[in-house]
Amino acid sequence: MSMHEWVTSTPWWVALGLIVSLGYGFFRASKWFGTTDNRLDALERRVETIGEDTKRIFDRLPTPTVEGRSPIQLTEFGTKISTAAGVKTWAADHAPNLADQVSGKSEFEVFETCVAYVAGQLEMDGFARTIRQAAYEHGTDAEQVKKVYEVELRDRLLATTDRPVG
Hints:
By secondary structure, the protein is mostly helical. It is 78% helix and 2% strand. The protein has 7 helices and 2 strands; from the N terminus they run ααββααααα. The protein has a two-stranded antiparallel ribbon with strand order 1-2. A hairpin with a 5-residue loop joins strand 1 and strand 2 (73-74). It is rod-shaped, with a radius of gyration of 35 Å.
């Protein structure tokens, strides 16, 4: 059946129903696409907001003073704190107190000893105050400054004590 035959043989109300149905379908499709665009725009705005919120959260975290790779090393910020607070001098003064204790230990055991030693030193009012002051001056927290002391003391001990190979 050709198109002409179909048009001439189809009742007018079927043709009208078909035209109305197609028109309504186009209308709904255009509304749906418009809604989809609006939803995509809203989604894009939400993703941008999440990104901004995440950045604000990370901005509140203290700047790290050490890098998490092995062995732990000071970051540029940690080195800045070390220099300003005279931590290398402190480490040179305190390393002799631990030299016998760490002799023959592996590097990670030396570091563990330094962590415990610095924690013990925090019980002394002057040392705890020094750490809090350095944290305040550099806009970080005391835990980050404490890590600088631990790493500098470890480095001093590793440079001056005997350790097993491997």
